[in-house]
User: Fold these one by one.
Assistant:
Number 1:
Amino acid sequence: MSLPTHFTLNTGAKIPAVGLGTWQSKPGEVRKAVAYALKDGYRHIDAALIYGNEVEVGQGIVDSGVPRKDIFLTSKLWNTDHPNVAEGLEKSLKSLGVDYLDLYLIHWPVRLVPNESHPLLPVNPDGTRAVDRAWNMSETWRQMEEVYKIGKVKAIGVANWSIPYLEDLEKSWTVVPAVNQVELHPLLPQHELRAWCHQRGILLEAYSPLGSTGAPIAADEAIQAMAAKYNVSPAAILISYHINRGDVVLPKSVSEGRITSNHKELVSLEQADLDVLNGLAAQGKAKRINTPLWGFDLGFADWYGPVKSV
Ligand SMILES: NC(=O)c1ccc[n+]([C@@H]2O[C@H](COP(=O)([O-])OP(=O)(O)OC[C@H]3O[C@@H](n4cnc5c(N)ncnc54)[C@H](OP(=O)(O)O)[C@@H]3O)[C@@H](O)[C@H]2O)c1
């Protein structure tokens, strides 16, 4: 069985199954990484204003020579811009040097109130994050729908949204999010969240598929054993897992060899092996790696949930 190269969003647009992540890709590295990836056949780049490197990402796109229209480009509304979606979007478009995005996501269901402490991560006098808990996320989504309807972005979605947050948003959305981008890997398979999203036509995108910095999940013995069985790298098992499940996957690398293997060394996994991967978290290995200190629970109760095929 050959693996899908693309999935279809609820807008009807095709999205490449593998996208290049750019978080923590340093200045001086990310431009080359993006240019190399696009020349090597990637057609999907995952960016964000908070990564602080969108200018270089845009330069890498130009360097690659690949036409803009052939690239699926995502960026994300930062937390300080919830009341001003059009302005937040404009900053990313300008930095990236493009006039539209293929996908724009609300980066977190968390509004931060700008103050003089820090331009993007403002804190209160006591050092806690300057979060506005009273902010109505439906208003942010209403403004996301506006930039979608005028065509500045071809699709809109969310990132880091748990079921309770989505249930709340569902009460007022007129455009169903195309995507929910969340931490997703065999140690955090999020079975219930996937089922909820799939029932509504929301595609999941897997971030930190290798466990983020240093790819720690690749060292897991079950992953290593499966890599030996399929004669591929552990990273290839972790990336292939998502495509086999029907989710987009966003591995980050600035190394040419890894950028190549991360989209070319993919394998079709037997159902029994998918079941093993789907069950690892429930066997006591559940782990969430990205836990920013927003100061409150984001409602992700489902860390490993029941194992079921969805
Ligand atoms: N929406 C959100 O809140 C959110 C949060 C986190 C991430 N993301 C997105 O998801 C992307 C991926 O997540 P991530 O950056 O956290 O981590 P990741 O892709 O799970 O892992 C990246 C780490 O693995 C290494 N690596 C890459 N390919 C490898 C391979 N084949 N073998 C061994 N090591 C390998 C990378 O090093 P080298 O670069 O040196 O290869 C880097 O240290 C991000 O870049 C970002 O675009 C979104």
Number 2:
Amino acid sequence: MARHTLDTIPPYVFYELDDRRMAARARGQQLIDVGIGSPDGPIPAVVVEAMQQAAADRSLSGYPNFRMHPAYQAAVVGYMQARFGVTLDPSAQLHALAGSKEGIAELILSHTNPGDVVLVPEVYYPVYARATLLAGAEPVYVPFLPDGRLDLDALDPALVARAKVLIVNYPGNPTTMTVTLDELARYVAFAERRGLLLLSDLAYSELSFDGFAVPSVLQVPGAERVAVEMHTCSKSFNMAGVRAAFVAGKRDAIARLDRYRSNIGYGVSTLAQVAATAAFTHHATIVPPIGAEYRARRDALVQAFRAGGWPVVAPRATMYLWLDVPAGFGDWEWVDALIQGPGVVVTPGMAFGEAGRGKFRVSFVQSAERLAEAARGIVASARR
Ligand SMILES: Cc1ncc(COP(=O)(O)O)c(C=O)c1O
């Protein structure tokens, strides 16, 4: 068999990190794992109850709708209206997803041909580039301006002419960068001018602090003509294991995604959709305690770094710190020093692309006390 596209894709850095983590555990080492972004909090009680009832409900045991359960549609329409003032047509502007990671991949795969270009932020959540490569298309990396906005003017016009999709991710993983509605409007205008689909990945819509409310691209007037937005239950509601998300926006893009998905699957698990329905219905009561916990963790971590002399800036969204590898350390050398020294597992920046070299990511997935302990270990390891 000729070489398959899959074999041309570089290994996933997170696998390599897993190997190092497992090797350390096998040596009997105690670890504080702040590498992965998997929320450690419980699934909200109202969601658990809804899932328990649904599991015993005979009317829900058949195959799910291809697109979305009507109750889930209604919950999302209510959430988007209440949270962003965005009105959606549920029959044409919504689709359930089994997580936004898969959804992003499916959207890219259903909108690109070999030789097409996908415009990806230079530091990025890995699926943006990997799904593009799986499609036989080419990721072209958009540099950041110093304030975190995308420098679209820096792009080669010949590459932009081949582009089909522009991906934006604010609040960003791993960068923690946020964006204004005006800036989102600039991306909408760019996409409209160039005939691109704008894909906004809004995985951290509810994880913001200090009174900052994360905007939706669909708040930009006319955005639904060019944009789709991915939302997920994973981070906002501690539901990463449930695999429930949705995409909203541009009608023909959602119809195309539906065609793609219906050829390979049967819709999203009804149990997951019932869980997501409960979560979005009760978002106003579920989110505040989860946000307060992350804020306390962020503050403990930032304070511990600052006490150690690291001038860390407190992010106003996401569940991460995105920090510089101390001078004198290579990327993996730093990761290994932290595992072997204080037993702290962090993610090396190159997991998020070449432009992530020289950085590392700390996730707020431990208690405030453990995070402060991790920060002290990190600070101590930089002195050698
Ligand atoms: C920016 C971003 N997008 C998407 C995802 C995937 O989320 P989901 O669990 O919905 O697949 C993540 C998860 O870490 C993320 O950080």
Number 3:
Amino acid sequence: MSQHHRKQKWSTHSPKLRKLHKATLPQTCTNCPHPVTADMEWQVGHRQDAAMGGQPTYENTGPAHSMCPWCKRRCNQVAGGRLGAAMTNRAKRTEREQDSYRGRRRWV
Ligand SMILES: [Zn+2]
Ligand SMILES: [Zn+2]
């Protein structure tokens, strides 16, 4: 849960957006490559996270799984707080990924 979601703006817009998106299902989840269908649990998710300047508009939101049966994760909760941490750790992680990539390449 990010600061953004506690704001009046989001609580006012979210139910309206949910209705709009519900009418378009099935749609691809905003946080994973899998479809969200009308008979699944889902919530309004951001395409561009609020922490990145994303606005609570129809264009910037879409359905996100409450629990994706393929990913086995809560798609609507993977952004926000974790995004901040991911941004902080990105440099470190990229370095590590490049190392493992080079490591694999040696054995090809
Ligand atoms: Zn998903
Ligand atoms: Zn998924």
